[in-house]
Amino acid sequence: MANRLSRITALLGDDAMDKLRGATVMVVGCGAVGSFAVEALARSGVGGIVVVDFDVVEESNINRQLFALGSTIGMPKVDVAASRIHDINPDAKVIAINAFVDDNIKIDITPDFVIDAIDTVDSKIALYKWCVAHNVPFVASMGAAMKTDISKIQVAKISKTTVCPLAARVRKMVRDAGLPDFPVVYSTEAPHKNASAPGRVFGSIVTVTGSFGLRLADVAIKHICGLCGK
Predict the structure, then answer these.
(1) Which of 79, 135, 157, 175 sits most deeply, having the most CB atoms within 10 A of its CB?
(2) What domains sit in the chain, N to C, each tagged with a CATH number?
(3) Number of helices (H) and strands (E), helices first, in the chain?
(4) What stretch of H or E contains 57?
(5) pLDDT tens digits, 40-90
């Protein structure tokens, strides 16, 4: 694997790469945001990756989801994710969990870090409760749909977020649940009011959703390598 990871090793150094190889990161949600987070982790040499999702690939996912291809339609997203991770880094240990996250979720592994790329608020809160109960640090994605300006994407604690309607809902539920503050990736761009189709299907573009996923992976990688704040 030396050649595959030589460029990142040259940048971060051997000690950081040892930390990445020895770490396990769990990504919950393998769609528009999560698929890009998974991709970045795999290409950065993270040794253990847990992918969690309950859904299958649909044709409508192709505009924004890395795992969505003509050849993968109908396949479980976690299976596609696991296959792609192994193709990128055969040494990676991958665990695929095909499950919906709620208050009854049972995950037998305790990762070093968790990335939340879930769409639904109740599932997000359930995951945060699980992370706090298991003392696992995490970062969460807020709303990436109905946005077009990647320059407005930021990282901040949930208590400091503004503009994003999803972040506002999550902030309230976090307070009500008595959960501690935590970092999120969010956008200060106001949602485009006309960017939705009938049936509350929200418009989205890969440049934004992918950027969200990469920012989430960046937070995880820096945490593992001890580069936070640098």
Answers:
(1) 79
(2) 6-225 (3.40.50.720)
(3) 7, 9
(4) none
(5) 999 999 999 999 999 999 999 999 999 999 999 999 999 999 999 999 999
